[in-house]
Amino acid sequence: MLAQKKKEETEREFHQRVRDETKKKKMKNNNALLSSE
């Protein structure tokens, strides 16, 4: 039971990190677009 809970927590942290990375990439792309105009 405890191992299952830990696995779920790890997955949630992983998804959170992926979301953060995606947000950073989008911001970087937006900045690149803005600065190239």
Automatic annotation (TrEMBL):
UniProt region (Disordered), positions on chain: 1-37
Biased composition (Basic and acidic residues): 1-23
Protein name: Uncharacterized protein
